[in-house]
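Study this chain:
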Amino acid sequence: MTIALSTTSNFPDPDAAYRLIVEAHRGISDEHSAALDAALVLILANHIGDLAVLRDAVTLAKRRVVDEAQAGL
């Protein structure tokens, strides 16, 4: 069963979720930060367990990164 990618916040406190991720990176090197991000992505991708949803998420994330790069952000 494929479920559509949800792009609205499912957190009762989205700012707390953001702070949790930011704080996880505090005090670690850029290399460890990248490794943390990769591990987190793989853990959450496994939790989702739906290739179509993962594909949509990768496409959306990549589009946002490319758009920001082109905008000079």
Observations:
- The mean pLDDT is 94.
- The CA atoms of residues 2 and 51 lie 8 Å apart.
- Helices lie at 14-25, 30-48, 51-71.
